[in-house]
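Appendix C reproduces, verbatim, an entry submitted by the partner laboratory led by Prof. M.T., so that reviewers can inspect both the input and the predicted structure.
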Amino acid sequence: MLNVPDNRYNYLMEIKNYKKEFIYSYSLGAFPTIELIKHKKEYIIDIYIHSSFKNEEVLSFIKENINKDKIKYNDKLINKLSPKENCFVIGIFNKYDTNLDKNKNHILLDNPANMGNLGTIIRSSLGFDILNLAIIKPGVDIFDPKVIRASMEAIFSINFKYFSSLEEYKSAYKEHEINAFMLQTNNTLDSFKFTNNLHTLTFGNEATGLDKKYLDNNSIIIKHSKNIDSLNITNAVSIALYEFRKQIKNN
């Protein structure tokens, strides 16, 4: 389990740039940190604020919601941890576990490899009201600050869980129909009819797509012109989510 109690004394020994093996991570920026406070306040270790930061609305929100012993000012640390010059607030928080809602639709990503893409997909999934994300390992570390920043506030509002294989996921969520988006099928998104079942919209690695084991009668292709080989995965996910949401709202 990642739900670790306050480990402030451990991490203060030497705060370093993020590594996957850390039991804590960072929200880089005022807006992501505000959303961290709103949705995952119980996991916050400390909030660091740059001395030049003067946004009174944000400062008031932080002071009203975070114990004063967890609010720190350290310009050097912020400059060290953030690759961007306009980062004035950083939240340090313990990593945490979540479970997927068995009664809601899911997105499944098989071996996502790009941090920016993962963050963008998380943001799109929140925008289209799918709040449960399954990831088949190996995959990008969802707690990497680059993923958090790319998702903006969204990562703190969704459930996510890693699985060792598709079989492990299917065993846990037997009621979900897998809808794999891939090039090898003849079912086009504009003609496919989503049922009233629970669905798992499934997408593959940015470079290799999905393995043929995903191919069945519920697989879907997003048709595009012959001017390109394939859509960027973030575009494909957004298009799929838009059509899926439109259909299920009208059912």
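Confidence is low (pLDDT under 50) at residues 1-6. Additional entries are available on request from the coordinating office.
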